[in-house]
Amino acid sequence: MIALLLLLVLVALIVVRVPVSFAILGSGLLGLVLLHTAGEVNGILEVVPVSSVQSLSLSAIPLFILMAHLLLMSGLMDSLFDAGRTLFGRTPGGTGIASTLAGVGFSAVSGSSTAAAATLAKTSSKRMIEEGYRPETATGIVASVGTLAGMIPPSIILVFYAVTAEASVGDLIIAGIVPGLIIAVALLVTMFVPILLNPSRAPAGQSSTWSEKANAMLPATPIAAIFAVVVGAIYFGIATPTESAALGVLASVILVVARRKWSFPGFVHATIETVKTSGMIFAIVIAAHVFGYAFTETKVADNLLGWVGGLTVPSLVIMAIIMVIYLVLGFFMDQVAIIALTVPIVLPLVETLGYDAVWFGVFVVLMGEIGLITPPLGLNVFVVARAAGRDTMEVFRGALPYAAAMVVVATVFILWPEIVLWLPNSV
Questions:
Q1: End-to-end CA distance of the chain
Q2: CA dist 69 to 100, 256, 271, Å?
């Protein structure tokens, strides 16, 4: 009964737009008060908040965020998009391909879905509309491609999941590579099917010489180098994820200086944005641990495991139900909050079904990324609509086919989990 009350209070606070961290913390404090004496509550609050943020792995999150903001200063995102247009300009939908490739490249060094979507929208969406693309096509693909940053390393949200689930941060970062590329291919296929049926949806652009195509590859070189430094150091066991993130920050500073984009006000802005985002994440971590402490004592997780263990339905049916639950949660909640609240409860259940904690991290992040492009709270959609100056519902319509494609990819991962685990298992 207390567990249900805590969930109802949490939902009510979120509905009235209380910040997520305060909503989670308020519900958790209520649970502690109902279950313990005042002295016991004080003792719990002296230990739990501090211990929740003492993980060394958490320090990788602000470093990856800072790296992303420094790379935004470098202006490489525009160069990546222009390179893609040069390579595929004459292909119907070539600018859409360029947006996807730029999204993959930026995701490989940013880790932030909304940052990738906002940056792409300022360049590629407007360019596509000017070239004659339908607005929903131009904005939908950009909002969807932005989600790749949540999967392709160094993904901030995968690091957060690893800390929450007490899984290997290095394995989670490596595990995101293959699924991220598969999702990128799925988005491209989804874009091309209607173009093949109706080429007027995405007209071809200008042709380029082979020399121009070769020169267009140059901007991708720094991105590939930084990706190799960060991910390669983890894959080959040269450095921990936190040390690799620090190397990424150093490489990003060198790149910004080499491209003559460095400015003190720009660095201050990057630092302030890093502190804001990191503070939000750490606040949710602390709140979720307080809530989790109270919720664990209600024995709901133990009862759920016992109930599922007694079921005779196939594990795929249970995973299908879990997928629907996460899909619905993504409609209304932030990724960080979803992971912090549900993973400690659902992960033990998923492991009893024979799935791995690393696999589940990729699955949960993918479902959360779908929530970024679906109504009513699709954050990437609102970011792209504002940056491109388009109607929000127009962007939602353009993004829904890509959301459906990502659901199909999630289903494939459920049926063949070895796709996700192949690369981390090879380390």
A1: 45
A2: 20, 11, 8
- SS3 helix, strand, coil % of the chain, rounded to 5? 80, 0, 20
- Encode pLDDT of 277-330 as tens digits: 888 888 888 888 888 888 777 777 667 667 766 677 888 988 998 999 899 888
Q: Could you report the per-residue pLDDT of 353-409, keeping only the tens digit for each? A: 889 999 999 999 999 999 888 887 788 888 888 877 888 888 899 899 999 999 999
| Rounded Cα gap, residues 31 and 27, in angstroms | 6
- 209 — alpha (psi -120 to 50), left (phi > 0) or beta? beta
The Cα angle at residue 376 between residues 373 and 380, in degrees rounded to 5: 30
**Using CA atoms, how far apart are residues 425 and 267, in angstroms rounded to an integer?**
38
Q: Indicate the SS3 state at residue 216.
A: helix
Q: What is the DSSP letter of 57?
A: G
pTM of the model: 0.84
Tell me: cis bond preceding 314? Omega within 30 of 0 counts. no
Give just the sign of the alpha carbon dihedral 331, 335, 338, 344.
Answer: positive
Domain ranges of the chain: 57-425
Cα torsion 77, 79, 80, 84 to 10°: value is: 140
